[in-house]
Design goal:
About 5% of the residues have low confidence. By secondary structure, the protein is α+β, with helices and mostly antiparallel strands. Helix 1 runs parallel beside helix 9. It has 15 helices and 17 strands.
Length: about 550
């Protein structure tokens, strides 16, 4: 009964592991067959192996001014967060000199990614004072010198919706504004304390807006999702859901309380992004829960981009693209082939050593390494598809190191089995007892490797993170393989006649059982052994003594004298 139970348990583990592999293979086939974005049988490569696009951003500031180091550092952090949040892996963001920011992205980025990088994403909430349809100036109208007009309010405005904010200059600017023509400079930053004349992002409407009442900095979270009805049904219309912090919630509640019930356009609350109105909804209810929703002509992609921009905040200063060019791989496919060749050579040496040391058990090692390699490949390909992970040369180095970690697990397990055989156990019992001893050592070893990988990933630069990620991933897979493949397979082989008989080429040579350590410095030697072999086996058994046993033996010798 015990034999049947062990066999069923081993086969069950092998079946579960096979199911996991088949699931991910099927998932990859489905993704490629249905042309899912990013789905591929091959992992994506990093900047050092594939090349990509380099974008140089230069600050748009007043002539004679200079961006501070704090502003550039903050901009680098925000841009890196945006890129990581969009799923693009292995990107590099750095400061060039004292002014420019260099962004290097693997592959060829699309327009959405470029917009995500360079957009300031300054979100502001302003009340609508005047709304009109954009169009060219009347024929024959004389140009107006705005600088000659007053920009002072005639009376003191009572709130941000007061028409007193409309100065002579703002009124003239509004009347002469043609949204189809460029009217804003790159990276232009508006004064949040005064009124603003601007257009919507589609150049259809023009507005006079009041001062900013809610800042984008008061947004604690932003997510993209579909609009749902009051009954919970989806409308398949994409929107951006906002959640304000305490300050933003209070301010938003006060504004909606004032605008609620007013006539259009005074009841509209314009949401501007980098000075352009993305939506100007009417206030139909007082919102005091700190949650709002931006609707418009969003697609899933555009809604996600805007949510990512708002989530990580606006850039402290405006930027414009100074240059954009393709860059070749710094290491290239030749280095990749060299790295993989090094890994293959290491693998061959591991197999040769295992065959020499453990004979027939080398088949278990080979099978385990093949299974581990398959699972690692599937995991990396899946993460490349779903999470935008890219394999760099540092990651390849982590994979090569993992060969040694996996081989170490086999050695620990096989040596524990041999120790049990020398203690006089039969093979089946030695396999189970050896596994109980080996798994503790394997868990400790893998825990140390995984902890080191996590520390490296969290505290080091992006180039080292690739190594840390693959090291941690392969460590987890090593534990999975040795638990659900190596051990169950050895359990089944222990019931095979070739291995159970202790054949000299099986790796379970039972001759070691004929010399065993009895304790107190005494060895039991089988009479069937020849003198030379017995002496050799006795020396081998003596090597297996613990330090305590050797000290006890030395003390006994002194006492006999």
């Amino acid at each position: 009964m015990a034999e049947n139970t062990t066999t069923r348990s081993a086969r069950r583990k092998l079946s579960w592991l096979t199911g996991i592999a088949v699931f991910f293979v099927g998932l990859m086939i489905w993704g490629v067959a249905t042309v899912q974005p990013g789905a591929s049988y091959e992992p994506q490569l990093g900047l050092d192996l594939q090349g990509g696009t380099q974008i140089i951003l230069t600050p748009t500031i007043a002539e004679g001014d200079q961006a501070s180091s704090e502003q550039l550092t903050q901009a680098v952090t925000i841009i890196r967060q945006r890129i990581d949040g969009s799923g693009v892996g292995e990107a590099q963001v750095s400061i060039q000199g004292n002014q420019n920011i260099v962004v290097a992205i693997p592959g060829t980025p699309d327009a959405t990614t470029l917009q995500l990088i360079k957009a300031s994403a300054l979100l502001e909430f302003r009340p609508v004072i005047v709304q009109g349809i954009s169009g060219p100036a009347a024929e024959g109208a004389l140009p107006v010198d705005l600088e000659t007009l007053s920009n002072e309010t005639a009376t003191t405005p009572v709130n941000a919706s007061d028409t007193a904010w409309i100065t002579e200059r703002l009124q003239a600017q509004f009347e002469n504004l043609d949204c189809s023509l460029p009217f804003r400079g790159p990276g232009q930053v508006d004064d949040p304390t005064v009124g603003l004349v601007t257009c919507d992002e589609y150049s259809l409407y023009k507005y006079i807006l009041g001062p900013v009442e809610v800042q984008g900095a008061n947004i604690s979270d932003a997510t993209a999702g579909t609009v749902t009805t009051q009954t919970g049904a989806s409308t398949n219309t994409w929107a951006v859901n906002l959640e304000f912090d305490g300050t933003g919630s209070d301010a938003f509640g006060l504004v909606t309380s004032r605008l609620f019930g007013l006539q259009s356009p005074a009841n509209q609350f314009a949401i501007t992004l980098d000075g352009l109105v993305i939506t100007a909804p009417s206030t139909n209810a007082v919102i005091t829960n700190g949650q709002a929703q931006i609707t418009g002509s969003f697609t899933q992609e555009s809604a996600t981009v805007l949510a990512d921009q708002l989530k990580y905040g606006a850039l402290p200063i405006g930027f414009e693209v100074q240059s954009q060019e393709n860059i070749s791989a710094t290491l290239g496919s030749e280095s990749l082939r060299s790295g993989l060749l090094a890994g293959l050579i290491g693998l061959i040496f591991v197999i040769i050593y295992m065959a020499f040391q453990y004979r027939g058990l080398a088949t278990v090692v080979l099978g385990s390494l093949i299974v581990a390699a398959l699972l690692v490949y599937l995991a990396i390909a899946f993460l490349s598809w779903r999470q935008g992970y890219r394999l760099s040369l540092a990651g390849v180095a982590g994979l090569i190191v993992a060969i040694g970690i996996t081989a170490d697990s086999f050695i620990v397990y096989f040596e524990r089995i041999r120790d049990e055989l020398r203690d006089g156990r039969n093979l089946e019992s030695a396999v189970e007892a050896g596994w109980k001893r080996a798994i503790r050592t394997i868990l400790i070893s893998d825990a140390v490797s995984f902890t080191a990988a996590v520390v490296l990933y969290l505290l080091t630069s992006s180039s080292v993170r690739g190594f840390a990620f693959t090291l941690g991933l392969t460590t987890l897979i090593d534990l999975l393989v040795v638990t659900m493949f190596t051990h169950p397979l050895v359990q089944l082989l222990a019931r095979n006649k070739f291995f159970a008989s202790g054949h000299r080429f099986s790796g379970f040579d039972l001759s070691a059982r004929e010399v065993s350590y009895k304790g107190r410095g005494e060895f039991k030697v089988s009479k069937s052994l020849a003198g030379g072999k017995a002496e050799k086996s006795s020396k081998e058994a003596q090597k297996r003594q613990t330090i305590a046993e050797r000290k006890a033996l030395a003390g006994q010798g002194d006492h006999d004298e």
